Amino acid sequence: MGTLYWQMNDAWPAISWSSIDYYGRWKPLQFMAKRLYKNVAVFCSRDSIILVNDELYSLKAKVNIEYVSFDGKVISQQIVEKEMKANEVVEVGNVNRSLIAGKEKEVVLYMSVKVEHDPDYYMYSTKFFKNFKEMNLPENAVLNVRYEMGENKLFLSSNKVIKNLFISSEKEYLKLSDNYFDVIPGHEVETQIKTLGGLNKFKGSLRFVS
Q1: Closest to 161 measured CA to CA, from 191, 128, 134
Q2: ∠ at Cα 166 (74, 129), nearest 5°?
Q3: Are 135 and 153 in contact (CB under 8 A)?
Q4: What is the pLDDT of residues 38-69, one digit of tens each?
Q5: Tens digit of pLDDT for each residue in 136-184?
Q6: Phi, psi (rounded to 5 degrees) for 96
Q7: CB-based contact 68:108 (threshold 8 Å)
């Protein structure tokens, strides 16, 4: 069993369906694939909330299932603890359609998983219930950026939902550990600058667009 991944990189400069362009720059798809293909992952498939353990050993996982309105209000939250066998896939819940009835344009399902043996492990995914053009995304969200200079890390949070935040620089291509992500109120997102020179090099030139 496995995955046939098409297409990873470009052989020449062109507009294509690859996840890495000709120059080695990551496109949004590559960041999404990196998140979803983590060894322990949670995501929504149709209306089922699926937990995957691709590790070759059993583990204990804690899943957070949270419905959040675009203005930052937590509508519902549920914690599910699960003991998983090696290479196991289980359903840990279902989308509560009655909970979001009439609010599909302004609610997001936020799912995250932690594992007991690794306190630093954290994986998250989001589920939106309408096409992007139909969502009532807030225009006045406030993005908070916290810097950790020694580790070249950025920590981002917001008072309202921010969809597909893209971080770049006016100076040159900015290589990040994570990019093109959703910022959900109450949950800080961490990313690290991988380009030589780190935060000091890009100080004052970072751009944040969604």
Answers
A1: 128
A2: 40
A3: no
A4: 999 999 999 999 999 999 999 999 999 999 99
A5: 999 899 999 999 999 999 999 999 999 999 999 989 999 999 999 999 9
A6: -90, 90
A7: yes
Q: Sheet with 153-158: list strands edge to edge.
A: 143-148, 153-158, 189-192
Please state, in angstroms and rounded to a whole number, the distance separating the CA atoms of residues 90 and 111: 15
For residue 166, count other CB atoms closer than 10 A to its CB. 14
Indicate left, alpha or beta for 164 from its phi (over 0: left) and psi (-120 to 50: alpha): left
Kindly give the pairing relationship between strand 143-148 and strand 181-183: unpaired
Token readout for 137 is: 């995304």
In this structure, is the dihedral angle defined by the CA atoms of residues 131, 134, 135 and 141, taken in order, positive or negative?
Answer: positive
d(CA 43, CA 115): 15
Q: What is the pTM of this model?
A: 0.91
Strand 74-84: give its sheet, edge to edge.
74-84, 59-69, 107-115, 118-128
Q: Are 75 and 98 in contact (CB under 8 A)?
A: no
